[in-house]
Amino acid sequence: MISIVIATFLTATVEWVEAYTIILAVALTIGWRRSVQAAGAALLALAALTAIGSFLLTRIADLAILQLIVGVFLTLFGVRWLGKAVARGAGLKKLHDEDAEFAALRASEKLNDARAAWLIAFNGMLLEGLEVWLIVVALGVQTHHSLAAASAALTALLMVAALGGMLRRPLAKVPENAIKFIVGAATLSFGTYWVLAALGYRWPLGDFTLAALFGFYVLGGLALIRLYASEKLNRHAT
Amino acid sequence: MHGFIKTLFGDRRTFIVAVSSIIIAYATLHSPATAFAGVILPLCLLAGAAYLARY
């Protein structure tokens, strides 16, 4: 259960930090009350989606089908996050910069319209929260720890909200790429494990396989970062 | 709706990488090399992540 809680907490932290940047930029234009209202409405929508998603998945009686569905979605999520984190870690892609995002949003003319600004806060929170929703529903239902996963996401939300409330500026110091790398490797491990188990494969190490897969993806990802970074250096040198 | 679909399935390249890896693993699982499916899938997915990072 602890791995589910950690993976959910880390995913949620990254996403809530990104959402907070949007809420903050909107709040400085239309005020905190309306900006937080928009975020609250998005959170309600996410809570409803979580309830619907969990309900639909728990209706699936065949464990193999449930494992396959959850495994495929976690694989899609994990491979995307790991790929992005490797690209950013190797310098092939710019690191996500909350300060720059905040500045760009503040400069946007859309914020001058109060209604459009409210929608930006709502959509920002909803879109960032969808990835949290996916992890909470997929990991929670598959492992029967939905409450623990939802609590981890909520704890991350409260932590980011408290930090944001104190600092009143983008939380640019959060090591987003390192977190994405770890979460990408972890979700890809869960996805790999469940997809093959659903297809009838018997993992020789049983549950210890998850730790082995996680180690494989972390070491493989680090090797890729090193390889791509050195290739980039060589290209610049020639 | 677009954001919802993108969160679930990723972009086209991510989808192709994940689905083709799973198809290869499935084919391995139903071949004489069944035991290697547990190695093939992680290798394919890591190669897919490498491709997504690079391009």
Describe the structure.
The complex is a heterodimer of chains A (238) and B (55). Chain A has 238 residues and is mainly α. Chain A has helices at 2-30, 32-58, 63-89, 98-107, 114-143, 146-167, 176-198, 208-237. The longest helix of chain A has 30 residues, at 114-143. The N and C termini of chain A lie far apart (50 Å). The mean pLDDT of chain A is 89. By secondary structure, chain B is mostly helical. Chain B contains 3 helices and no strands. Chain B has helices spanning 2-9, 12-29, 37-54. Chain B is elongated, with a radius of gyration of 13 Å. The chains are: A mainly alpha (238), B mainly alpha (55). Chains A and B meet through helix 3, helix 5, helix 7 and helix 8 of A and helix 1, helix 2 and helix 3 of B.
SSE map:
The complex is a heterodimer of chains A (238) and B (55).
Chain A: H1 2-30, H2 32-58, H3 63-89, H4 98-107, H5 114-143, H6 146-167, H7 176-198, H8 208-237
Helix pairs in contact in A: 1-2, 1-4, 1-5, 1-6, 1-7, 2-5, 3-5, 3-7, 3-8, 5-6, 7-8
Chain B: H1 2-9, H2 12-29, H3 37-54
Helix pairs in contact in B: 2-3
Order of helices and strands of chain B: HHH
Could you tell me the radius of gyration of chain A in angstroms? 19 Å
**Which consecutive residue ranges of chain A, at least 5 long each, have pLDDT under 50?**
none
> What percent of the residues of chain A sit in helical stretches (DSSP H or I)?
over 70%
State the total count of DSSP E strands of chain B. Answer: 0
Shape of chain A: flat
Principal-axes geometry of chain B comes out as elongated
Structural class of chain B: mainly alpha
Task: Describe the main β-sheet of chain B briefly.
Answer: none
Strand content bin of chain B: under 5%
The helicity of chain B comes to: over 70%
| Overall mean pLDDT of chain B | 91
- With helices defined by DSSP (H or I, 4 residues minimum), what is the helix count of chain A? 8
Q: Using DSSP, what is the number of strands of chain A? A: 0
Low-confidence stretches of chain B: none
Kindly report the average pLDDT value of chain A: 89
Largest interface, with counts of residues having CB < 8 Å to the other chain, equals: A-B, 41 and 30 residues
What distance lies between the first and last C-alpha atoms of chain B, to the nearest angstrom?
A: 26 Å
Quaternary organization: heterodimer
